[in-house]
Amino acid sequence: MSLHETVSAERLHISFFGRRNAGKSSLVNAVTGQRLSVVSPVRGTTTDPVQKAMELLPLGPVVIIDTPGYDDEGELGALRVEKTNEVLNKTDVAVLVYDASEGLSEEDRVLLKTLQTRGLPVILAANKTDLLPAAHRLEPDALPVSALTGEGVHALKERLADLGRSASKPKLILADLVQPGETVVLVIPVDESAPKGRLILPQQQTLRELLDLHCSAICCQVAEIPGVLASLKNPPCLVVTDSQAFGKVSPLVPAEIPLTSFSILFARYKGQLDTLAAGAKALSALKDGDRVLISEGCTHHRQCNDIGTVKIPGWVRKYTGKELQFSFTSGGEFPADLQDYALVIHCGGCMLNEAAMRHRMELARAAGVPMVNYGVAIAQMHGILKRSLEPFAIDF
After folding, report:
1. Can you name the residues that pair with 294 across neighbouring β-strands?
2. Which of 92, 98, 103 is nearest to 11 (CA)?
3. CA distance 39 to 29
4. Whole-model pTM above 0.90?
5. Cis peptide before 58 (omega within 30 of 0)
6. DSSP string of 375-386?
7. Gap between the Cα atoms of 298 and 338, Å rounded
8. CB 370 within 8 A of CB 278
C-alpha cells in the first residue's frame, strides 16, 4: 500500500479550530494548496466539518479537517459546535487559529485549555498578520501566518511535520509473532456479510504486512482448513480467522498451532487489547434488564444477518441466558454519557483512528463501564478467548 493509498484511519488527523471569521478555512486552503473549504467574509461560512485525506509534505499521508467556528450561536450554531467537539475526539494534532488583529478571545483561551487538557499537540496560529503593524506583539509561542499572503505557511507546515512525527508511533500488526519464511493461514469466510469483490481492511493490512515480512500467507475459507493444513510440510506459525468463524475454526486447528482473530490483532495494534480482554469478563456478569451498547465505527448497508444488530445480540443472549436491552450506534455517533449501560461491545474500529477509539474507551472508563470488542467478545462466548490470547502472553 503506497502512501497515496493509506486509509484514513491510519493517517495523522490534523484539525483546524477557532472562532468564526478567524480565517481557519483560508489557512486550510493555504496549507493544502487546494480550495478545500469555501471561504467568504461572512461569519460562519463553514457550517459542517470538512475533511480530506491527502499528502502533506514534508509529513506524508494525513487527514486535514476544517471545523465550524467554536463560538457559533443559536440553535443551529449549537449543533455546529457539537460537530466541532466530535472532531476533537479524533484529532492527533490541533491548529488553533485566531485573528492576530483582535488577539486571543475568551473562547480561544477556553478552547486552548481544552486542547491542552486532552494532551493534544497544539499549534497557536496568529492569522492575518499582514494587517498588523511591524511592532505588534503576538501571544507567546504563537506562529505568525497570513493565509492571504502566504507568510508563515511554510513554517506552519514544518511545525506540523515535527509534531506529526512525534505523534505518530510505528506500529506493527504481527511482526513480533512471525519470522521471515514462515507460513500464516488467514481464514476469510465469504458469506452474505462479506463485501463483494474485495477484502475488508484488517484482512488487507494483515496480508500486506505478511508480504512485507517475507512470510507466506495462505488465504482460505473455513471448509478448506483441513486440506490446507494437511498440504503443508510444516505447520503454520499462526492461524488468523475472522471473528465470526471462531466457533467453527477452533476445532479444525490443532491446539499446538496458535490461533487468533483479525479483531484481536487489531485491538493490540491500537493498544487496547489488555483493556478489552478484561472487559470480556463482564459478559458473565450481565443481569436481566441490563442495557448493552453495540457500537460500530463505520456505516454500512445492514444485511439480514448483520453481525452488530443480529448475530452478536443473539450470541450474548444465548451465552448469558438473560433478558437484555440492546442499543446500537454507528459511524461518528457515540454517547457521551455511558452510565446507563452495563457493557459496551464495539467493533474492531478499523475505520476509526487510534485517537477516536482511545476517546471512546476513555468515556467508558470514566463511566465505570466495561468495554469489549467484537472479536474478544465472540472468542469469550465460544470458550476460546484464553487460547486466542496465548500468542500475546496476556493472562486471562
Report:
1. 328, 345
2. 92
3. 9
4. no
5. yes
6. HHHHHHHTT-HH
7. 20
8. yes
The answer to whether 21 touches 72, Cβ cutoff 8 Å, is no
CA distances from 323 to 83, 280, 308 (A): 35, 18, 18
CA-based nearest residue to 28, from 97, 126, 110, 103: 97
| Radius of gyration for the chain, computed over Cα atoms and rounded to the nearest angstrom | 24
Measure Cα distances from 384 to 246, 323, 390 in Å.
8, 24, 10
Distance CA(12)–CA(4), nearest Å, equals: 13
* Contact by Cβ (8 Å): 361, 371: yes
**How far is the C-alpha of 360 from the C-alpha of 91, rounded, in Å?**
13
Q: Which domains are delineated in the chain?
A: 3-167 (3.40.50.300), 183-266 (3.40.50.11420), 273-381 (3.40.50.11410)
The phi, psi pair for 295, rounded to 5°, reads: -125, 135
What are the pLDDT tens digits along the chain (396 aa)? 443 456 778 889 999 999 988 999 999 999 988 776 555 555 555 557 888 888 888 788 899 999 988 877 777 777 777 888 889 999 999 999 999 988 899 989 999 999 999 889 999 999 999 888 766 778 888 999 999 999 999 999 999 998 888 777 667 899 999 999 999 999 999 876 666 778 888 899 999 999 999 999 999 999 999 999 999 999 999 999 998 898 899 999 999 999 999 989 988 888 789 999 999 999 999 999 999 999 998 865 556 678 889 999 999 999 999 999 999 999 888 999 999 999 999 998 888 888 898 999 999 999 999 999 998 999 999 989 999 999 887 766
C-alpha cell, 96: 488553533
Q: Strands 60-66 and 50-56: what pairing?
A: antiparallel
